[in-house]
């Protein structure tokens, strides 16, 4: 140990060795010594009466305290993450991030201070205060529709220039474009979509897909490490990590997620009830209704509005339903025609029913070459024919003609 032992050591304000500026280092240098007596002449430079000791190990280290500390931080597995938008999904993510040991801060339009404190999250009702905490990651969990407004309202100038911005929006091209448009070049951008929510991921995230696109991550080692650390929060929970472009995500999500939400919402309108003889399939439908109805309508509307592939999927769903009805009525029509006319009816050939829609991306044209409106009018024609046939049968066989006629009409109109 090397001892500097002048009888007095001078510390003045012009001293620039940053060891002495750092509070922890200063504490280290003085912690084992009694405090100096009060300085009798404040105008004169402070002179320490006791010998001032510096251990050689401190003086000779190639790295100073701060660089060691920053190395430790980059080696540590935890991050300081600020969640902006602390609604349903923001709180759901916070639970796991806190459990993993990350420091989580939150801010939202509404007051979630109580929920935050229950979750062990530091609550900031003011966005300026939140940004002045210099989080390493800003995690945007705002609704799709409000993200533009929220992002523009954040005091970006209060953040460190290297902050990593992450979003979890269910539409990705829109989020990516917004980030690129609004954020200064110094900020890193990671677009993600956890393909699960508070219902489907309530017990575990194991084997659930997590999509991400490293839109803009600086080459600096610490920036790369920070991004990996964030992704690791999902990987270590067992998520299936899928790296793909935002455009690829939106194409797949419209085919899968948007269709799922739409079917769930259609079924919800039927007010389905559990029965004493539920099949496994029916149980799954009830689960689907529960899963999709727990999400806000705003989320569903965002999936439709901000994914350019969603409209095509809605049209395809509509066509598929019409085609299926047409197929059913066509078969029934055949049976009735045979009963009515015997073999004489064979000469009237029914046009082939549409069995499947062309695959995605092949446009909406039906294979028969008919247009959507033609297909609808075809189905109306066969429905009318079917109705007439049922009525004719009813009259001919003297069954309760009027009732049958009425129910035939009501089921077709
Ligand atoms: P959401 O209805 O899509 O979003 C609710 C959040 O948006 C709340 O934090 C709310 O803040 C904020 N918000 C809404 N309008 C706002 C406005 N005008 N100004 C400021 N903030 C506004 O429901 P969510 O389920 O929590 O989803 C959040 C995000 O996660 C969405 O982008 C969604 O696509 C994505 N995501 C959701 C799921 C899921 O299963 N739920 C899964 C993956 C990804 P306040 O509550 O403070 O009003």
UniProtKB/TrEMBL annotation:
Keywords: Oxidoreductase
Domain Prephenate/arogenate dehydrogenase intervals: 79-358
Domain of life: Eukaryota
GO molecular function (one): prephenate dehydrogenase (NAD+) activity
Biased composition, class Polar residues, residue ranges: 368-378
One GO term (biological process): tyrosine biosynthetic process
Name of the protein described by the UniProt record: Putative prephenate dehydrogenase, UDP-glucose/GDP-mannose dehydrogenase
Keyword Oxidoreductase: yes
Location of the region described as Disordered in the Swiss-Prot/TrEMBL record: 1-46, 347-378
Feature: compositional bias, Basic residues: 13-31
SUPFAM superfamilies assigned to the protein according to its UniProt record, in alphabetical order: 6-phosphogluconate dehydrogenase C-terminal domain-like (SSF48179), NAD(P)-binding Rossmann-fold domains (SSF51735)
Pfam families per UniProt: F420_oxidored, TYRAAT1_C
Feature: compositional bias, Low complexity: 1-12
